[in-house]
Amino acid sequence: MACFAQSAEHFTQAYCLMSSQNSNIEAGDVEAATGAVLGGVHFKSLGMRCLQCAGILLLWFFGPIPMFVSSVALVIFLHYNYTGRQYHVRNRVDSQMQSFQKLRFCEAEILCALCEDNVIGRGPSGKVYKVESSNGTTIAVKKLQRRRVNQCENNDVEKDMVHDDGLIAGFDTLGRITHKNIMKLWHCCTTRDCQQLLVYDYMPNGSLGDFLHNKKAGLLNWPTRFKIALGAAEGISYLHHDCSPSIVHRNVKSNNILLDGDFEARVVDIGTTNGVDASGKGPVIAAACGYIAPEFLHAHGLNGKSDIYNFGVVMLELVTGKLPVNPELGEKDLVKWVRSTLDQKGVDHVLDPKLDSCYKEEVCKVLDIGLLCTDSRPDNRPSMRRVMELLQEVGRGASPYC
């Protein structure tokens, strides 16, 4: 009814415009009157432009009343065209969906927002979109890369694309994890075209990797970096020691540690690259370049010790401010560069010059923990719980005078 009322109001304006011109109606006046009747509708398709032309001809030859009727028909057409598109979007959502909390938005609303303009991150496991719902809630939606196979295993999905039941089972486990340093998975679903979507809270400060290795790095002082390291350690320790069965992340890196508005660490992407299989038979993947543990090529599967190595690399990033793989490091990765530079030049050539020197003692202690975690022999690495305890000890001995 609001559409009809608006059209009537514009029709009145158009009628007055024509009456004031008597019989001397110019082409520009007709177009202006037509625009008033249609209320600023944007004609993006050829069909819409044809309707606009038809409206102009009606107004020119027969007067404003037929034009009003055609504009009402146009409003009705646009309304049903929009609702039809909404139905099509809703119909894309497959019945395989899980919600772990009460949803504050609908799946159709999410699907409508998955466009390139809303992309805020890309990685080997998929794209991340920033979605603002109609009720004002901002969320992050990750669209996972689809898994291809030789033959379609289900007739109701797109050819060469299948649902990964092991992955879905893993997300069921992750959706029930509640820890302040683990990114909460609110919802996951699989669309009819086999797109798997994960819904998380939106983190305004992005990832640690992006923040640490760009122009914003100067904003990360040592207390903030230490807070992030301790929070991430607590989250990974929870996965290893407090979940039953224990969960191995397999892809710990600075880009998978997100930061909320208060720079609290949230570990994310648990299993989205390799699949967290509840049966314990999930596939094994290589970590990102620079994070690969030495035993990876010789082991039949990655375990918690590999996560500890990866986290040790993250601590070295926080201490040095350098990327795990960097042209300035030459052919060495960050772990090898730190060890060789310590031997040849000393600790002052390793620490990030942007850090205040009054924190040097604490920074060196964290450096030692990072080196312990990146020992080439897995058995020499501490457990993740022990890493957390070591960092807590550093925090308790922090100097209050800096």
Automatic annotation (TrEMBL):
Residues 114-402 form the Protein kinase domain. The chain crosses the membrane at residues 54-80. InterPro entries: DUF599, Kinase-like_dom_sf, LRR_Rcpt-Like_S/T_Kinase, Prot_kinase_dom. Gene3D superfamilies: Phosphorylase Kinase, domain 1, Transferase(Phosphotransferase) domain 1. Coiled coil: none annotated. Pfam families: DUF599, Pkinase. It is found in: Membrane. It is a single-pass type I membrane protein. The keyword Transcription does not apply. It comes from the Eukaryota. The keyword S-adenosyl-L-methionine does not apply. One of its GO terms (cellular component) is membrane. One of its GO terms (molecular function) is ATP binding. Keywords: ATP-binding, Glycoprotein, Leucine-rich repeat, Membrane, Nucleotide-binding, Receptor, Repeat, Signal, Transferase, Transmembrane, Transmembrane helix. PANTHER family: LEUCINE-RICH REPEAT-CONTAINING PROTEIN DDB_G0281931-RELATED, LRR RECEPTOR-LIKE SERINE_THREONINE-PROTEIN KINASE GSO1. This is Protein kinase domain-containing protein. It comes from Rosa chinensis.
